[in-house]
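Hello Y.,

Per our agreement to keep a running log of every chain we model this quarter, I'm adding this entry. I've kept the format consistent with earlier entries: sequence first, then predicted structure.
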Amino acid sequence: MSDRRPRAAWRRAPEPPAAASPAQPPASASRPSVIQATLYRDGHRVSSPETLAETFRQLREHPDGMAWIGLHRPTESELHSLAAEFDLHELAVEDAMEAHQRPKLERYGDTLFVVLRAARYLDAQEEVDFGELHVFVGPDFVITVRHGAAPDLSAVRHRMEKDPDLLRLGPEAVLYAILDAVVDGYAPVVAGVQNDIDEIETEVFGGDPAVSRRIYELSREMVEFQRATRPLVGMLHGLMAGFAKYGTDEELQRYLRDVADHVTHTSERVDGFRQALTEILTVNATLVTQQQNAEMRALAEAGFEQNEEIKKISAWAAILFAPTLVGTIYGMNFDNMPELHWAGGYPFAILLMAVVCTSLYVIFKRRDWL
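Predicted structure for the entry above:
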């Protein structure tokens, strides 16, 4: 990609001014989407045009320059004007209009189309926020289309402008700087997720009932994180495979290898996080089951103790019921009750009550009710 071809060989011929003006939206319409458009020559900033039309005009006047155009959620007309000016493939433009693309790298002639998934860790919400970045890289231009808050490429611009030797290497150097910025942005996310997992482990063994939801939400974020990092490993290896074919500068080769190492490390960490969360979820389910079993056991023991108390109460109630029954019968004082005038009636009643109570006590005692 470093072999710079004449502009007429890869770009559509410029239209006459009268015909070109309808394709370019008014400056007021483009400003909300165009974050920054900058022209560079020999590694130094030349100008920062206010509109896309002015950027196109200045780039035509300086064919040895490079344009770096940054957009945030551009309109369809803006993308079509870029496609017409830089001969972007319609499939790549269609992808750039829509977010939710998987990370990928595709080559359309002399233009590379790269989709990246950036990530940032939100401390307040303790969650991972994902953004999407589409990059068009041609012989003398770089176009970045950002969907979402991340990544912020202003730091990449400042870094590149402070290193003219690196910026002088052209659009490939800008692409690798963007890749490095996206990959470096994964480091705080990895640290934040590691801290979340440590907190979750404490909550799991502390018996927090809300931890299951937190594990599930973090697991979903790790699935998204895997989708962002795993394809990137193959993409970078694909770029490295084309070093010799496209004559990539040796400095950029070392640069890209370092980025590839970081991506591989991050991808392995993310895989480890998913495995750890799966294991934590299993442990949490086991602990919840054990807690439920302990509660059921305690409930059963409480029921057993309550049953024993009921047995004792029932036994004593039956024992006390016998003398009550006898006393109630002989307390009716009917005239025709022959035992009322019997001299041995009272001792007999007392003896009867004592025998019945003793018999019931022995029976209940043998059955462990008392």
